[in-house]
Amino acid sequence: MEKNLKRIAYAAITSVLLITAFFAFQLPNTQLNYNFEEFFPAEDEETSFFFEHRALFESDNDFLLIAIEREDGIFNRAFLNKVNQFAKTLDTLPNVLFTRDITHEKESFIYTGGRRGERPYIHLDSSNYHQDSIHIFKNKELINTMVNAEGTALTVFLRHKDYLSKAKSEQLVADVKAVTKTYDFESVRMAGRTVGQLFYIDTMITEMTTYVSMSIVLVIIFLIVAFKSLWGLMVPQIVIVGSMIWIVGFMALIEKPINILLIVLPSIMFVVAMSDVIHLISKYLELLRTGKPKTTAIKIAFKEIGMATFLTSLTTSIGFFSLLFVNVIPIQDFGLYTGMGVLFAFVLTYASLPALFYLTKVPEVGKRTDRNFWKPIMRKVFLFTLKKRKLIPIISILAILLFAYGASKIVVNNFIMDDISQDSKVKQDFDYFDDRFGGVRPFELAIVLKDSSKSIWNAERLNEIEQIEQYLINEYGVSINTSLTRYISVLHRASHAGNAEKFYVPEKQSTIRKYKRMLKIADQGKFIRSVLDSTENTTRINGGVPDWGNIKATEKNKAFNAFIQQNKLNEHLNVHVTGTAELLDRNMSYMSSSLVEGLSFAIIVVSILMALLYRSFRMLIISIIPNIIPLIVIAGVMGFFDINLKITTAIVFTISFGIAIDDTIHFLSNFKLELRRGKSKLYALKSTFLGTGKAIVLTSVILIGGFSMLLMSSFMGTFYMGLMICITLVIAVLSDLFILPLLLLYFYPGPKKKQLIKEIPSDSQTN
């Protein structure tokens, strides 16, 4: 028998080490992914429409905006000549398609007879730019696009190739920065997809490294504090480090990149694995201290803690798996792989620790007792709970009502850049463009002829499109970059000697035909393709708006749609707001229903597990109540402190429920075991509280310590995730120590209430 056990133990350890080595070998292949488009709603009509629309034209998000400031004003000869040379140099960089800036822009003129001429907006060889500045500010399409309204900054618009890889994006930004350093500008700011992408990826790499390093340090600290021995420090490392290696190695093996949400994976694996380890080792050491032989202690610990830990791992993974209900691929990936990681940690714990217990000597820590430290504390807490058995429910109900009111104040909102801290240079630069240059949030409008046999060049249709554009400029707040009617208006103004009052679409069809010919031959026909598809049935209006959030954007869209309906502009045209920002906003409209579905799924599945385990409807309710309270509290905190419900904060609810219920399951499982040993309900409750209570407090401290690492994140979404889960864990442990015992005392089948009250120590006995 002894030889068989030793053989099994060696086989288990060897298998675990081989699997761990295999996954460790995959780690160098780990990939990082930051792609906003993966946050678009999956299998959604609007997403499909956008991709089809973009295929007709070009990406609405592949550009760099470079703002160059001069406090004394931009109309300075030396400054403007430097900008001119700067833009020319940028034009020569790899992956740059073209640049635009005010020093290279020219105003076109069309003379009688069709002869064309051009005049630069800026005369670089001039010593007096007064006339140039007056002329520029008369041309409204240049303000807040080429120059700011104050005349203290201008922009260089750099259009680069679509969908640059990380390496090419990195090279482009590095090249632009290198060129910028050769010019002595007062201040240069950059914004664009490549800048944001590089910031996210670099920060992801830094934070992944930080979280792994801090996890290792915290593991060492917690294990030393918990077990005060070299054995207690070394043995659990296989599970804790191994679980991280398994899940990250598995993702590398199947070539699944780590997205912005999955950077918290090391922290989650640390706390989950530590929780499994603490419960099993604590029980094993407790049994050794009672005089049980090593083999017997291993068997009892495996049997009594194994099922409870399996259930806690299952419920935690269910919490993560419930994120599969959210119709966003990165969130689904986060839920799937984190849930798998939780199950990996359970398998590692029970495949390796019992074998290690068997193959190592009984640790000295197993011969000591910590009764003098933990038991007096837990006894006082238990007696306090009994003594305040009337006050605790009253305070709990009042707190629930208060936080439920706070939850009613939650706002569903999302900003493109709200995951970045205000202290970040990237965030400050994006905000600058929002304030001074019309915004960097892309705006895209698709306009399609309902009757494909008709022409979009019809004067009436163009007049309708012009009405739409004027509304977008004056009411919606769009800073227009490109549109068919804008190009026609520019040509019409050019035909009238640059008269700004002639900046509109003409009514005469013959005049429109003339401008049509000019536009179609410009740049060998490529120019018109930026705003009109090959069938000439679909056109676009492209521009930028401030990053004003999902709520305001939704209100703007409702007002815009009402304008279209009221003015009957949809009789001949299909008008469709689309684009990357619009799809991210649309995602938020699904978030509330997805959150409810996912959370409901988690609660229902956990409830079924509780019902099957305890075969009692009362126990089902008793187990759920302490874990609903933390969810109400964090919802209330979000409402009171104006923390918006968005992708990164919405997923906290399902995660929190899955993690919070762990300690409840351990408590109830131990309570059931004590009852089976023949103890009365009160004394079974006391034994459970004193024994399992220590593990609950210890694991909660570890979990809070692990998730508090996320508070150091540069991503506000990750910061709030860490904060909300820490609050959840604090409330969960308070619920398990003060509310759960009273629920069991009064509602678990057993002695009648009056008889129980007689058994409860009096106030004098509790002192």
From TrEMBL:
PROSITE patterns on file: SSD (PS50156)
Topology term for the membrane: Multi-pass membrane protein
Keyword Membrane part of the UniProt annotation: yes
PANTHER family, alphabetized: BLR2997 PROTEIN, MEMBRANE PROTEIN MJ1562-RELATED
Predominant localisation class: membrane
Claim: Membrane is one of the keywords in the record: yes
Pfam families per UniProt: MMPL
Subcellular location(s) per record: Cell membrane
Keywords: Cell membrane, Membrane, Transmembrane, Transmembrane helix
Protein name per its UniProtKB record: SSD domain-containing protein
SUPFAM superfamilies attached to this UniProt entry: Multidrug efflux transporter AcrB transmembrane domain (SSF82866)
A cellular component term, taken from the record's GO annotations: plasma membrane
Transmembrane annotation, as ranges: 208-227, 234-254, 260-285, 305-329, 335-359, 391-412, 595-613, 620-641, 689-713, 719-748
Record Gene3D superfamilies: Multidrug efflux transporter AcrB transmembrane domain
Residue ranges occupied by any SSD domain in the UniProt entry: 264-359
Organism per entry: Brumimicrobium salinarum
